[in-house]
Amino acid sequence: MIIHIVGVEYLSTQKTDIYANSNVCINKNGDLAKNLICPVLVELQPEGTLPDLESLNEALSFLRNVAWNPWTDIRERDDIKKLNVPFPYGPLPDEIIKDIIQSYNAAVSYIDDLTGKLLKEVKNDTLIVFTGDHGWSLGEHGEFAKYSNFEESTRVPLLIHVPGLSNRKVVSNKLVELVDIFPTLVELTQISSPLPLCPNHTTTLVCTEGLSLVPVMIDEIQNKDIKIMGYSMKTKRYRYAEWVKFNPKNFTIDWTTRYGRELYDHLLDPKENMNLSDRPELNAVIKKLRNKLILGWRHEIKKKLSLNK
């Protein structure tokens, strides 16, 4: 058991405290002493064991009872039965694991082909939602089949096609749930007004436990959420950029509050992989470019026009 006290981490049990500094090291004559070089016989130790062994046994007990699933589901399959995999945690042979993953991927490809054949017969003005049950663990976390709450086991496929809206084939990483599908379809089809949120223990016939995904599909930038804005300029040699405070209400810039800056030398680094903004020897260049950036393109054009007169 790991104990944390005032920042010091140490391994401690009551038995360790009781038998600390006991004579446990075997001398050549068979007596027990307090030696630095200390071979031990477990049966001669206090209570016939060691703290390390007690910790190991406790960990093994924990693993068997809590942390892992013994693959009971797949053990019922005839081909896995023939392997006589030791209970509870195997291991499964590597070749069998590869075959399981290969077969799973083949099943996914097969379903993908069937889905494609179905979609070829669907009219272009059809609203389509593709989803399914959650998947299997394929060895992640030492798990197979279902019966866990890890990411691999709880996610489901979700594809939505809305004619005229989702033609861009956008992939969103925003957090959504299956309960969001119903209010999404209601909004897209406009079969009713927006649904009320279901209260606890409700008997309401028409309500929702989710949120419409239409804003996610439209993915419009919410100006009110933009508090930092990036501005950049380019010369024949340099690109300079600053990230500064931005007011989304009146679109004003606060150049005095800077969150970051970037400077790239296109002569040496045309792909802009090395940010030079922290180089003291380039402070003069940065100062000049920053002034130009703040003054803006109008000032630069006016200056060029005045020179041409």
UniProtKB/TrEMBL annotation:
Coiled coil: none annotated. Keywords: Hydrolase, Metal-binding. GO terms for molecular function: iduronate-2-sulfatase activity; metal ion binding. Its cofactor is Ca(2+). Residues 93-191 form the Sulfatase N-terminal domain. InterPro entries: Alkaline_phosphatase_core_sf (IPR017850), Sulfatase_N (IPR000917). One of its GO terms (cellular component) is cytoplasm. Gene3D superfamilies: Alkaline Phosphatase, subunit A (3.40.720.10). PANTHER family: IDURONATE 2-SULFATASE. Belongs to the sulfatase family. This is Sulfatase N-terminal domain-containing protein. It comes from Rhamnusium bicolor.
